Amino acid sequence: MYKFSGLDKKTGHQPRGKKGVLLMNLGTPDEATTPSVRRYLAEFLSDPRVVEIPRLVWLVILHGIILRVRPAKSAALYKEIWTDGGSPLMDISKKQQAKLQQQLSDDGINSNVYLAMRYGNPSTASTLQAMHKDGVDDITVLPLYPQYAAPTTGTVFDAIARELMKWRFVPSLHFINTYHDNDDYITALAESIEKDFAVNGKPKKLVMSFHGMPERNLQLGDPYYCFCAKTTRLVTEKLGLSNDDYVMTFQSRFGKAKWLGPYTDATIESLAKDGIDDIAVICPAFSADCLETLEEIQGENREVFEEAGGKSFRYIAALNDDDAHIKMMAGLVKPYL
Ligand SMILES: C=CC1=C(C)c2cc3[nH]c(cc4nc(cc5[nH]c(cc1n2)c(C)c5CCC(=O)O)C(CCC(=O)O)=C4C)c(C)c3C=C
Ligand SMILES: [Fe+2]
Ligand SMILES: [Fe+2]
């Protein structure tokens, strides 16, 4: 490590040689208002990794229809889940950052933890610039998506590369692309399920609901589906569940194409109709609770279940800032620090 105190006298360069951790997540609107949601969705849905249909056709649909209709609807949903700390995804991400910082320092590691979002704020570019200013030139990137997918993890890499293309001194980079089968992740999920079962009893069915994606992405080689299946297998094996005890499903469909199935809402409805009136739902693809878990699962899907005759619906929270989750993150980044 270079040992400069203050700026170098000859070059005016910053002291360098520090290592830093960069936590990344999707991003969320700054406010639960239509203009704020529109700005966020415009950036998110313009990403060619997220919507893979011919560019020109998509931009016409996006700006002609979707960005005129969806922001107001989504803003109303965000309002339902908004907290004093802002969007749950942002609030929880900040807590994760602070707790991981503390965990690393408890473990005797003197590296700063930074937080950036792929869309919206704090932006990837501005966070990388802040790291550079702090003298960090060795960056460990942890996208908080347990199962690699091109529209999530892949595009985090794009955003980092796009910024670094402008830099003269490209830092050392360590990119953690997936942790779907990491022992500590599987154990943390299994323990959170066991805790729920201990308090509320074993449900008639455990629904493991993952965020969906178009089925075409799978055919084109995206490993996401297989990684979700592996997480499901490892967690259910750890819990000693039999095939009848659980089901893997996919939620948050968007657009007209066929998405990965079975769909969460249709599954939950048919479970209730078949007399499986007591279920617990967990969403292992989400490292932090957000619109898709708090509103779509706890809100919408609960209603679907109850209207179809279901009696007991439990949502098992994301790992959020649980100690086991933070320790898992520390375990993932430590080999590079
Ligand atoms: C349009 C295609 C989409 C793909 C493919 C997709 C994949 C994907 N997304 C997540 C995680 C999150 N998605 C969230 C919200 C969200 N996702 C899409 C679309 C796609 N996602 C939309 C349009 C939205 C916005 C919500 C709305 O307006 O209804 C979120 C929550 C954000 C928040 O602010 O709370 C997360 C997290 C994963 C893991 C994934 C994997 C394939
Ligand atoms: Fe999504
Ligand atoms: Fe949704």
From TrEMBL:
Record's protein name: Ferrochelatase
Source organism superkingdom: Bacteria
Record localization: Cytoplasm
Residue ranges, annotated region (Disordered): 1-21
Sequence similarity: Belongs to the ferrochelatase family.
PROSITE patterns linked to this entry: FERROCHELATASE (PS00534)
Species this protein is from: Shewanella intestini
Gene that encodes the chain: hemH
Binding-site list for Fe(2+): 211, 292
Keywords of the record: Cytoplasm, Heme biosynthesis, Iron, Lyase, Metal-binding, Porphyrin biosynthesis
EC number: 4.98.1.1
Bias (Basic and acidic residues) ranges: 1-11
One GO MF term: lyase activity
